[in-house]
Write a structure and sequence with these properties.
Blueprint (H helix, E strand, L loop, with lengths): L2 E4 L4 E2 L34 E6 L5 E2 L10 E6 L6 E4 L32 E3 L4 E7 L10 E3 L2 E9 L4 H5 L5 E7 H4 E3 L2 E2 L2 H13 L2 E7 L8 H4 L6 E5 L16 E5 L5 H18 L3 H6 E5 L23 H7 L6 H18 L4 E2 L11 E3 L2 E2 L14 H7 L1
Parallel strand pairs: 3-5, 7-11, 11-14, 14-17, 17-18
Antiparallel strand pairs: 1-6, 2-5, 3-4, 8-10, 9-10, 12-13, 15-16, 19-20
Helix pairs in contact: 5-8
């Protein structure tokens, strides 16, 4: 088992491994600006000092070094530098006993391709452990002895015991678009910040998804943002267990079409703003493992839209096809292609992971060809065809 300690150190530039990568994501060589040519009059074997603040930012941003120079890294706090060492090594000898670097370890050099077990936060009020005598809200509690687990916490709150669990790699932080994007150019990152601070403090990774859909799309995108309001009604489950009295037509919701330029602009602006916010703190950005492309949602974070067509209810496929910004499979593919490019540009060196429902999208070919109440699918996309195309 590797031990991790914080060290304040001074090292030769040729022995960079002792410091790991100082609290920032290393850019590919093609993106790193070239240093200015060394000054011929510079004193040989000089010491070059670099200060790293609590967010992992360097001062000065650029230095010139020569062979034989010593680069001395000074961190704001000794816990800001975390490297792995062999077990049983005295702190004074730490730099001589570096453990082999594991690509997926959450601290130290930048994460490669993340792997492991990620658990999801609650979509809604978070879980809180409290005595059984206290009120526990509307959701039936889970009881263990004299303690009960209740869904009465802050939105999406994650229990500390989850962050402390040695059996997991990280947490998928699911955010609602309307909670974080409160108005044109206005954002609230409090829920995300709390989770990122916990991830860093516990040495865990996190992934992030921002969902739209029934309980996620901001109403201001319709009233102020120029997005066409597409009014639909559908269930999240074939069992329709929430239906008390037929006809079972589902939940009403207003969504935006993937072909609507205003919808894409607002959602992609939010992704760019989130990327900029996470990168304000290098420890947050280092702990970020995966970004989930999303924004085409029904109720949960998976890629899925209202797609049922019933004679006694709304025919969602017809509504999508006849909208001003009509739905087509190609419009959906273009939406995700553009989003992939936004994420690649805004989140350098981070990976994407798509959340799916296999047959989750409306069976529509164009304005005149779509699934009708008789269920005939001749000449229409297969159920999972659009999901498969997105993954490809």
């Amino acid at each position: 088992m590797f031990a991790r300690i914080a060290v304040l150190f001074c090292l030769l530039v040729t022995i960079i491994a002792c410091a790991g990568v100082p609290n920032r994501t290393v850019k590919p060589r093609s993106q790193v600006p070239r240093a200015a040519p060394a000054d011929p009059a510079k004193t040989p074997d000089a010491t070059v000092d670099i200060f790293v603040d609590k967010h992992g930012k360097f001062s000065p941003k650029t230095v010139n070094i020569q062979k034989g120079d010593t680069v001395r890294w000074t961190f704001e706090d000794r816990v800001d530098s975390v490297i792995a060492i062999q077990d049983g090594v005295a702190e004074a000898d730490a730099c001589n006993q570096i453990a082999p670097y594991r690509r997926n370890q959450p601290m130290g050099p930048s994460i490669g391709v993340p792997a492991g077990i990620f658990v999801m936060n609650i979509d809604g009020p978070g879980l809180v452990a409290q005595p059984v005598a206290k009120p526990c809200g509307r959701v039936p509690p889970v009881r263990v002895g004299e303690t009960q687990i209740c869904q009465v916490g802050n939105e999406g709150e994650i229990m500390q015991s989850t962050w402390d669990d040695l059996g997991i790699t990280g947490v998928l932080i699911r955010l609602n678009w309307d909670n974080v994007h409160t108005g044109p150019g206005q954002f609230d990152w409090q829920q995300l910040d709390t989770a990122m601070d916990s991830a860093v403090a516990s040495g865990k990774q996190f992934s992030v998804a921002v969902k739209s859909g029934k309980n996620g799309i901001p109403d201001w995108v319709f009233t102020q943002g120029g997005v066409e309001r597409v009014s639909l009604q559908d269930w999240g489950s074939d069992s329709e267990l929430d239906c008390k009295k037929p006809p079972c037509c589902g939940r009403k919701m207003d969504l935006g079409s993937p072909s609507d330029p205003a919808y894409k602009k607002h959602y992609f602006d939010m992704l760019r703003a989130m990327a900029s916010h996470i990168q304000e703190n290098a420890a947050w950005y280092r702990a970020l493992a995966l970004v989930k492309p999303s924004g085409m949602n029904l109720i949960s974070s998976e890629g899925r839209l209202p797609n049922r067509c019933k004679a006694e209810c709304a025919c969602n496929t017809e509504i999508w096809a006849k909208a001003k910004h009509g739905y087509t499979p190609q419009a959906l593919y273009d939406y995700f292609d553009e989003q992939f490019a936004v994420i690649e540009d805004a989140f350098p060196e981070k990976h994407m992971s798509y959340m799916l429902i296999q047959a989750g999208y409306p069976i529509v070919r164009d304005r005149e060809h779509y699934l009708r109440p008789d269920g005939d699918t001749a000449g229409l996309p297969r159920g999972a065809e659009q999901t498969e195309a997105i993954l490809q």
